[in-house]
Amino acid sequence: NGRTSRLLMNFELMKSGFPPVVLKVENRLAYYNALDKAHTLGDYEPFIALVSNLVEESFEPYWYVLGT
């Protein structure tokens, strides 16, 4: 189930001190494509890059509050 996997992904991110990521509608196709590549070809780089970018975006409110 996709929701469960995203919940577990966010749980692991938060356990490691990262904010949870929000998968926005405009990122959904890229997410599914990256996930498909990882599953069918074993190429995890696009998925890792996408999640990394989403984590960076999740930090933006914190940077704003901190004034950086």
From TrEMBL:
Compartment(s): Membrane
UniProt: ATP binding residues: Y31, Y32
GO cellular component, one term: membrane
Entry-linked InterPro entries: Fido (IPR003812), Fido-like_dom_sf (IPR036597), Fido_containing (IPR040198)
Superkingdom in the source lineage: Bacteria
Keyword Nucleotide-binding (UniProt): yes
UniProt GO molecular function: ATP binding
Keywords associated with the record: ATP-binding, Membrane, Nucleotide-binding, Repeat, TPR repeat, Transmembrane, Transmembrane helix
Protein name as annotated: Cell filamentation protein Fic
Species this chain originates from: uncultured Sulfurovum sp
